Amino acid sequence: MPRTIKHFDLHQVEGAELRVVSDVESGVFAVLEAEDEVVRRYAARELWRHDWVDLFILQDLQVLAEQLAGAGGLPPGGTQALDRRPVVNAFDLRDLSGCHVFVNHKVMVEEGYWGDPAAVRALLAHEHAHPLSENPTVAASRALRVRSSQAPAAEAQPALNGRPSLERLAAALAEKLCCYGPREVFANDLAIAAGCGDDLFHLDELVVAAAARGVLGRYALVDLLEADVAQGKRPRQAAGQALLLGDLRSCLDLAMEIAPFYRAGRADQAARLEAMLFEQVFPRLESPVEGTYQTVRDLYVDLGADLTGAALVTWAGRVLDPLLAALRERGLELDLSFNLSEKEEGTHA
Fold first, then answer.
1. Which pLDDT score, from 0 to 100, does residue 71 have?
2. β-bridge partners, 58
């Protein structure tokens, strides 16, 4: 069904042309105010590089998913993951004169971000940081690939139904932490440097609070696995392996959100976020999760901006080691590693 454009605007902010298109009925001007403020903060610190920005405020990101799928530029998790992202910046590494920012109204409302100016600024600042925070390590991450004896990480299935699926799920987690994690860390670094650190902290408080609420849903998975064991559908050891991997997948990526606060000298804010994790999340998860998180967080904190491809492979192996060790303790031996391929070109999100 064709969409009706409810809002179109064109104006200048800090020398950049901002073109706005929306099919959302109300609340658009608050997003425009947030975008304007973010651009001005970047420009005030001489971090702004674009001549134009296309800002799309849409009911959902179905159109963007179709475009990126055709260009081969989908983020980890493919179309399904893209549809759950509140804001996306689609940009071309070959031409950083501008970018296309997409705001997902449906997800913004569901997550409680719509109508929250600080959260909106944080999301926009983070997405704008992606093309502006390119460095040798980020470039190397675009060539980093997970090697697995099973299907590629991109083919991971959501069901926890046996060892092959567990290996694919573990590969997908390794890909997220190591291939995409550095990009998230440096984008958060730049958003903080652009003067949006307090906004980012506010957003991460919401994210960690959501993780604390979400861990309550873990009991349904425990019941499902116990039922499988009772019915003879899976060995008890396999159920324990699936539960641990699910716990690791639920919170390890929070390390890439919290580490930038340590990197920026904002240890007090990082500690406040982690206090929520240590008190409300980790006690409800399998025991190896907390230590694995701390190791991954420290590797993000120490991540340099000038890693060559080989050095990044070594770093990624150090991130992968505690993940594999935790699963190995539960009897799950996985054949995962990293190598380098051609760097990605073209449009990214």
1. 54
2. 104
